[in-house]
Amino acid sequence: MKWTSCLIFLLGFYSSIANAQVCSAEKVAEVLAPNTTGTDVVYVNCNLNLSSTDVVTKTIAVRGIEGRGVNINCNNALIDGYAGGADRFAVIIRSTPFEDTWRPVYNVTVQNCRIRGDIRVRGMPYEDVKQSSFSLGHTERTQAAAPYNITLQNNQITSTGKIHLYVESGVTRVSVLNNTFRGTANSATIYLDAESGNHTIRGNTFAANSTAREILAIDGSASNKIITNVFYNTKGGVFLYRNCGERGVVRHQTPSFNQIINNVFYNRSSPTSILGGGGNSNPGRDANYAIHVASRNGRPNYCNEDNGYNFGSSINNRDLAKENAVAQNQIFNATTAAKIVNDENPNYYFANQTVSAVQQRKAGCFVESTKSFVLDSARVCVAARSNLCQDGTLIDQGTACN
Q1: Cβ atoms 379, 388 nearer than 8 A
Q2: How far apart are CA 254 and CA 256, in angstroms?
Q3: Which of 90, 192, 266, 325 is least crowded, fewest Cβ atoms below 10 Å from its Cβ?
Q4: What's the CA gap between 128 and 247, in Å, rounded?
Q5: Beta strands at 393-400 and 385-390: parallel, antiparallel or unpaired
Q6: pLDDT band at 148 (very low <50, low <70, confident <90, very high)
Q7: Contact criterion met (CB below 8 Å) for 267 and 234
Q8: DSSP state of 220
Q9: Cβ(222)–Cβ(193) under 8 Å?
Q10: What is the pTM of this model?
């Protein structure tokens, strides 16, 4: 009986954690209190609802067990990561250490915010990632330690010179939906780091002035869906690669099984061919390609810094970006269209085109089992089941194929 009571208590306890309660008036006051040091952090463990006139000048942190299930709805309030001249994260969502393991945060939503500064989603810190990378099972370890089911929706994110959204090693299932990215970036606007994956980046407008490199970096991240986004002012759009050996970390996962579908690219200047090979370009940074699959392939000068192990990028510096689908993308300005570049095989390309007038349309679907592409509203047979393509997603109709 005692064990039953204890179990009921624990189940109730963890259920309440996974479904956060509304923040108290005292907690809201703590969130809105001035940042007196320039580096103040406020830990949010409840559902936070702000008003449009509110301004948050502290870093908002959502972490570990206490952050599970948290929903932050700004209702157009401002989270100002630059307040007081500070250079810090505006929002950080991260795991917390516990004894010899990690407690990941999950089911977190940040929506309807105006954000000045950058956002981090973090699992293991760098040194732990590096040590883990020296043995097999690294991808599984980093993913088990990292946040998952994180949603960033309907936000305006403005950063100056930094990565707007950095999704760190092992993080899975981040949904970036209907956001606008503004400001400037001297690196990528969004960076999907090694061993991460299953992210959805959909319906976003990328309007930050990217002065140095591509907007979306997929570095050893796999099984992501990049659907119906608009990329402006690009020095490169979406690049897939594996940063072999960087800072001594062995990369295990390859940038494979990604889907890049129904996006629009407004490139500043570019080559004239729609599809080709990248040749000997300088690690993907000297061309304004809309999409470059396998953009580095061992060219960085640090690739040998992870030598000495019989797996991953330690034995093969190539990106090995395979089984990616690139379909239905539009590249504005047909006379100077940017290349979609493929430097690895097999990858799959369908109905990409240069345009002088952008078409507004729903996304089609890549059918993994047949390596084919169908348009929206098409019906296909997948594993003997009838599926309907609905704006980029195959939906099982619950019936057998005819």
Answers
A1: yes
A2: 6
A3: 266
A4: 13
A5: antiparallel
A6: very high
A7: yes
A8: S
A9: no
A10: 0.91
Nearest one of 80, 62, 81 to 72, comparing CA atoms: 62
Evaluate whether 376 touches 311 at the Cβ level (below 8 Å). no
Rg (CA), the chain: 22
* Per-residue pLDDT reduced to its tens digit, 203-261: 999 999 877 889 999 999 999 999 999 999 768 899 999 998 899 999 999 999 999 99
Residue 222, C-beta contacts closer than 8 angstroms, at least 6 positions apart: 197, 198, 253, 254, 255, 256, 257, 258
What would the two tokens of residue 324 be? 């990616």
DSSP of 30-53, one letter per residue?
HHHS--SSS--EEE--SBEE--TT
- From CA 281, how far away is CA 270, in angstroms rounded? 14
Specify the DSSP class assigned to residue 261: E
Q: What is the DSSP letter of 216?
A: E
Q: Which positions ≥6 away from 79 have C-beta within 8 Å?
A: 56, 60, 90, 91, 113, 114, 115, 116, 117
- What is the C-alpha to C-alpha distance for residues 291 and 323, in angstroms, rounded to an integer? 15
What is the C-alpha to C-alpha distance for residues 282 and 286, in angstroms, rounded to an integer?
6
Peptide bond into 104 cis (omega under 30): no
